[in-house]
Write a structure and sequence with these properties.
Blueprint lengths: L1 H27 L14 H17 L1 E6 L14 E6 L47 E7 L15 E8 L9 E14 L2 E2 L14 H12 L3 E7 L3 H10 L1 E6 L6 H6 L6 H9 L29 E5 L2 E5 L2
Antiparallel strand pairs: 1-2, 3-7, 4-5, 4-8, 5-6, 5-7, 9-10
Length: about 325
């Protein structure tokens, strides 16, 4: 009896093993599930981005720039140039390679410089910082004259003159000789040229700190002087003591200058009318009698007195 039970259980287990093996074989033959492909971006969004990019590209303006440094007096070739598209092109910049190929710059140009007509115009740093009706004039300064060393290129100053009382100048005076002159440079530091480019090369933090220290100790200031007032300022530097009075930045004189606004002739006339005893600048004034002394009657003839080789005039 026990052997029959054992045989039955063995047959049952064998049958179960066959069923499980067949089921596993069936499952192994089923195709693997296909991975779900990622959803493609919506076509309308891609179209909008392309449209916006195309519109921005059309709005950009071409500018001719240098690919590498170019020495002076070297004709430019197409290999030296490239076209970059900017949202706003600098005023006066060249837009096509044909405008620059074959032309010769008169000064050293660095890589990345955008080109304009001034790039091919002769002239040094100062000559490119003033207009045709201006002159650049250097003035000697010290810590007092130069506003305690706080002047920087781009400031506007009034030039004041103090005349001492002496034999040729019987009355001391102080006056504004030339008002509102633009500071081009202080020592070795200069501002912007007429094309908006820095006149001095870009410096690192350490070099800039050293330059600022030299600027504070500078002994010369270069001023942009209107041509009609040039001789007056030159004369003032020789006959008296100068002071440079800094004008407020709220006047926006520098902004007006870059906007192309120039001093009208009537401004020069007004400057002349504000001068006090301007004839003293030429040292041409005659000595005045002391206060309270009045001449009465007709002038008396002078008597010539000769003592040896000396001749004097005396009035009896």
């Amino acid at each position: 009896m026990n052997s029959r039970v054992t045989l039955g259980l063995a047959a049952l287990l064998m049958l179960g093993a066959i069923v499980v093996g067949y089921w596993g074989l069936v499952l192994s033959r089923q195709p693997a599930p296909v991975a779900e492909a990622p959803a493609a971006p919506a076509a309308p969004a891609a179209t909008v981005e392309k449209t916006v990019a195309a519109a921005e590209d059309q709005a950009r303006q071409p500018v001719v720039v240098l690919l590498h440094d170019v020495p002076p007096f070297t004709p430019l070739t197409a290999a030296d140039l490239a076209i970059e598209k900017l949202r706003s092109a600098p005023a006066g910049s060249l837009a096509t390679l044909e405008q620059a190929v074959g032309r010769m710059p008169w000064r050293h140009l660095s890589a990345g410089t955008w080109l304009n007509e001034d790039s091919f115009t002769a002239g040094g740093t100062l000559a490119r910082m003033i207009h045709r009706d201006e002159r650049a004039l250097a003035v000697s300064v010290d810590e007092v004259i130069g506003a305690a060393g706080q002047l920087i290129p781009g400031d506007y100053v009034d030039v004041l003159l103090y005349l001492r009382q002496d034999a040729s100048n019987p009355q001391q005076s102080a006056q504004t000789v030339v008002p509102a002159l633009r500071v081009l440079g202080v020592g070795e530091q200069y501002g912007l040229t007429n094309d908006g480019q820095p006149a001095s090369p870009a410096l690192g933090a350490d070099e800039k700190l050293k330059q600022d220290q030299r600027r504070v100790a500078a002994r010369t200031v270069v001023l942009a002087v209107p041509e009609p007032l040039l001789s007056r300022l030159m004369l003032a530097t020789q006959v008296g003591t100068l002071r440079l009075a800094v004008r407020s930045s709220e006047e926006q004189r520098l902004a007006k200058y870059w906007a192309g606004e120039h001093e009208a002739p009537q401004h020069f006339d007004a400057a002349d009318s504000q001068l006090f005893q301007f004839t003293q600048l030429a040292l041409g004034s005659a000595p005045k009698p002391p206060p309270g002394e009045h001449r009465t009657g007709s002038p008396r003839a002078a008597v010539e007195i000769i003592r040896g080789n000396q001749i004097t005039q005396q009035t009896p």
